[in-house]
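Consortium newsletter contribution from the modelling node. Members have asked for a concrete example of what our holo predictions look like. Here is one, prepared for the guanosine-5'-triphosphate complex that several groups have been discussing at recent meetings.
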Amino acid sequence: MALPMSADAPTDICAIVRALNAGDMRTCARLITRIERSEPNLVPLLQALYRAGGHIRIVGVTGSPGVGKSTLVSKLVAVWRKRGLRVAVLAVDPSSPYSGGAVLGDRLRMKEHSCDEGVFIRSMASRGQLGGLAKAAGDALTVLDAMHWDVIVIETVGVGQSETDIMRHASVVVLLQTPMGGDDVQAAKAGITEIGDIFVVNKSEHPEADHTVRQLEEMITLALCLHPEKTWRPPVVKTRATHGEGVADLAGHIDGCFAHLAAQPETARLQLRDRARHRVGELLHYMLEQRLRSGVGLLPENLIDSVVARASDPYALAAGLLARMD
Amino acid sequence: MNAGTGIKVIVTMIGLDGHTTGAETVSMILRDAGIEVVYLGCNQTPEMIVDAAVQEDVDIIGISSHAANYDQVIQVVNLLRAKNIGDIPVICGGNIPRSRFGSLKGSGIAEIFPPGSSSEAIVGYIVNNARKAYAAPIPEALRAS
Ligand SMILES: Nc1nc2c(ncn2[C@@H]2O[C@H](COP(=O)(O)OP(=O)(O)OP(=O)(O)O)[C@@H](O)[C@H]2O)c(=O)[nH]1
Ligand SMILES: [Mg+2]
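And here is the predicted structure:
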C-alpha cells in the first residue's frame, strides 16, 4: 500500500508519529511532500496527529508582496532562538497561474538560520489556492504540530486583500504594511481589524512611517468604537526588518497577545471553534471537488450540454448532483 | 499539465560567487515549465544547500557556478551521500571549462550545462532525471474512491 520511501523515512503510522515526536526533520519534510501530493492513504495518520495536537503557538505573518515579511520572520526567529525556543516556519509563495510552477523566494531571506537544528523552514507553493495559503498548509501544520516546536510561523502569499485564511490557522496574526504610497493602508482598510492582531509598519526608516502609524492607530480606534465587545486593541509596531530594529518589541507584543488569549478563555474558545469549523468546511469542499472530478459518471457531458443549451441551469444541476451523493 | 509538474528543485549559487543573473534566469525558465524552484541565492555553503534539500525535500539540485569553486560543488554531492540522500542528482551550470567536465562528472555531478545551453535541454534533463520516487503519479489504486 505504501509508496516508495527513502531508506530512512518510516512508513507505518506509529513509526512516523514516533519520528515526528522525536523531531525528525526528514520524516517531517517527506510527509509535507506527500501532503502536497494529496496522497489519500495519509488520512489515518493525519487524523491521529490532529487528535494528539493543538498545543503549539501558531503565529501568522501577512501583508502585501515585498513588504518585508520573510526578512521580519527571519529576525523574529533570531529573537526566539536567543531565548532558546525551537521554531518552524512554513512560507507560502504564489504559483504561476500559467505554468503551475513557482519561484519560492522566502527561504532566501532566512539564510541566517540554515544548519540550525532548532529551526525548520519549509517553502510551499500556493498551487492556485486563493486566500494567501496553500491547500496543503492546514495538514502541514498538523504535521509540524506533532514535532513539539515552541512556535510555528506561517508566512502567507502577499496577496493584498484576501489573506483571510491565515486567521483560520494562526492564533496571532501579524499584518505588515510599509509607509510607502499609502496603498497598503488602503488595501488593508477593508479587513484591517478583522485580520490583524498586531500591526507592523516595516521599512520604518521611511519619513512617512510615523504618519502611517498614526493612520493605523486612528483606524483601530474607530474599529474598536464600532466593536466595543473586542477586548484586544491591536498594537502598532514600527520595524526595520533588515536591521532587526523593533523586532524584539514585536516579539513582546506577540507574547502579549498570547497572554491575552490565555486570560480570555471565552475568546480563545470562540477562535478555536471558528478554526475547527473552517477546517471542516475546507475538507468538505475538497472532498466534494474530488468526488466530482473522480466520478466520471457524476457529471456527464449531456447534463453539461443541457446547461449549455439552457434547457437546464447550473443551480438545478448542482442541486441534483448534491442530492445524488449518498 | 506541464512537463515539470510535481518536480521541486533547488537553484543556488555556491560560495562567494555573486553572479545571480544566470541562476535567476534559470529559475524563471524552470518555473515556466511547471517546476517549483526553491531559490537560495548567493553565499550558500555546501552544508546550507544540503540542509535546505532535506527540509524542502527537493528532487534535484541545480548549482550555478561561475567562480572556480568546484570543490564546494563536489562537497555537496559528498554531503548528500553521507546523509543517505545521494539519489538527489546535482547538476551544474555556468562558465565551467570543458576540460573540467570529466573530473566533475567522475566526482558525482550528474550533468553540466555550459553557457548557451538551451532551456529545452535543461528542462528536459530535469524532467527525465529528477528523483523519481515522489514525482511519479499516484498509483490509481491509491486514489480516493
Ligand atoms: N529599506 C528596507 N528594506 C526592507 C526592510 N525590510 C525588508 N526590506 C527589503 O524588502 C525586500 C522584500 O523583502 P522580503 O522579506 O522578501 O518581503 P516579503 O514580504 O517576504 O516578500 P514576498 O514574500 O515576495 O511577498 C527585500 O529587498 C528586503 O531586503 C526594511 O525595514 N527597510
Ligand atoms: Mg516572503
